[in-house]
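Running this now, will post back.
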Amino acid sequence: MDAIILGDGGLGRAIAAALTARRGTVRLIGRPRAGRHDPQTLRGAAVLFEASRGDAVRANVEAAIEAGCRRLVVATTGWDADRPAVEDLLRSAGVAAVVAPNLSLGAAVFLRLVGHAAALLGALDGFEPYVVEHHRRAKVDRPSGTAREIVRRIAAASPESDGPRDLEVAVVRAGSSPGMHLVGFDAPGETVELRLTARDRAAYAAGALAAADWLLRAPRQPGVHSIDALIDDITIPAVLAASA
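Update: finished.
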């Protein structure tokens, strides 16, 4: 796989290491001196990975489209305000992108479990959801993109039209933790908890490569694809086979 990675931080380096281990051709590019990447430097990639900063995503996607990139994997969080404009750019340019607040495949399944748990426990009396997330001191967005997606999934599964009231989200920024998310449902006599703990960025890199493989495997509709589409391709055949 010929790939360009925008962002030479921890995540970008982890993706580069995973691609190199697969004998791929990798260009790891840090922040541009002029504030925007020259599209000429982004030409020739089968897949472009966006792993920089939230405030750079829109400009980086614009530069990638100008360079002729047709497959993007966006692993950056903290750009929600620019998302509608980015989605319009991708669709109008005929570009397909996998976008996820957390590209770990385990995280994708975890989010599914959270949604199912919220629906089941929301149908019972007395269970109140809460979220705790812990990341390294230097992480900018708080709550994390994953935590915000957890809240969205809980709200979507809630029997209440506007989601659960007063959903508590506790944010910890300390040390060097790559990420921990705890989702709990507390009732007077018992507590149910689901926990996702990242030990390092290798899981994120593996998910990023799986997303790139999915984009390369078949033509995809222009616009944004969630990682759920990838998870369905992997898990549904296995689930059907197990139930046959």
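Strands lie at 2-6, 25-29, 47-50, 71-74, 96-99, 128-135, 168-173, 180-187, 190-197, 223-225. More later if anyone needs it.
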